[in-house]
Design a protein that fits this description.
Helix 1 crosses helix 4. The strands form 2 sheets. This protein has a 6-stranded antiparallel beta sheet with strand order 1-7-4-9-3-2, covered by helices on one side. It has a 3-stranded antiparallel beta sheet with strand order 6-5-8, with no helix packed on it. The chain contains 7 helices and 9 strands; from the N terminus they run H-E-H-E-H-H-E-E-E-H-E-E-E-E-H-H. The protein is globular and about 60 Å long. The chain has one domain: Sandwich (Jelly Rolls). The chain is α+β, with helices and mostly antiparallel strands.
């Protein structure tokens, strides 16, 4: 199976690239929605934090129907279930427009899973490339194999050994959240946009209440991914519910 082959790759190097997966129409719709979300989040950042985080939007679900459409299409579901050893949930859903000639926190060398647990994949990052990712517009740097080490690399070692992951718009980059990475600096005159999602085992608390952002009846897949089957009961009646009606369903880890 391809997912098992990819599992060996991500176990060793920490990442796998899937080129040209999204349609042009979906990619374009996501670009437009991300631009609007960045403007909206920028207003909230300035109002509440006193500064704008350049090109950054957080928790996109609910900020445009196309973001829910992306989740409904269940991209790389088999791979995610294989690598996380069963059902998983959406842990975060953000977006970045890498601006020309500016610096942001995403340019710093970092790993998104701060707690290092050896030999245990707790969370995976999914980078959705909405523009072509090129060296000149700041394609993401990844240090292959660094998810296996608890120690942070020095900047000199990182940039001597890391590689920029370049691919056309609509490509998907899946990587272990323990891997050290950084956004490259954009030396062009246009922004380079991408969506940054993380998926985790269901027992890990998500960064946002994504269930509250959607309305209407959801598919079984979205109920799982948005954490409906991994909720915390608030009463003994809920606790003693039969397995098929429990807040925290069997098989959630």
């Amino acid at each position: 199976m391809k997912s098992e082959k990819h599992l060996k790759t991500i176990n060793s190097q920490g990442w796998v690239l899937f080129e040209s997966q999204l349609s042009q129409s979906l990619t374009q719709g996501l670009r437009q929605a991300l631009d609007q979300a960045i403007a909206h989040c920028g207003e909230l950042q300035l109002e509440n934090l006193g500064q704008v985080l350049p090109g950054t939007a957080h928790h996109l679900l609910g900020q445009g129907p196309v973001f829910q459409t992306l989740l409904e299409q269940a991209w790389l579901d088999a791979e995610l279930q294989t690598w996380l050893e069963g059902p998983y949930i959406l842990n975060s859903f953000g977006g970045v427009a890498n601006p020309p000639a500016q610096s942001a926190y995403v340019h710093q060398i970092h790993r998104d899973q701060r707690t290092f647990i050896p030999n245990f994949c707790l969370m995976l990052n999914l980078l959705v490339m909405l523009d072509d990712f090129l060296p000149e517009n700041g394609a993401t740097w990844l240090l292959s194999g660094s998810h296996l080490s608890a120690s942070a690399p020095s900047p000199a070692d990182f940039f001597a050994q890391a590689q920029q992951i370049c691919a056309p718009a609509g490509s998907l980059l899946l990587f272990d959240s323990r891997i050290w990475h950084a956004a490259g600096h954009n030396k062009t005159q246009t922004v380079r946009r991408g969506l940054t999602l993380t998926y985790s085992r269901p027992f890990l608390k998500p960064q946002f209440d994504y269930l509250a952002q959607v309305k209407g009846e959801l598919s079984t897949h979205l109920n799982q991914v948005l954490g409906y089957y991994a909720r915390v009961p608030a009463s003994l009646e809920q606790w003693y519910a039969p397995p098929e009606a429990r807040f925290y369903r069997p098989g959630q880890g």
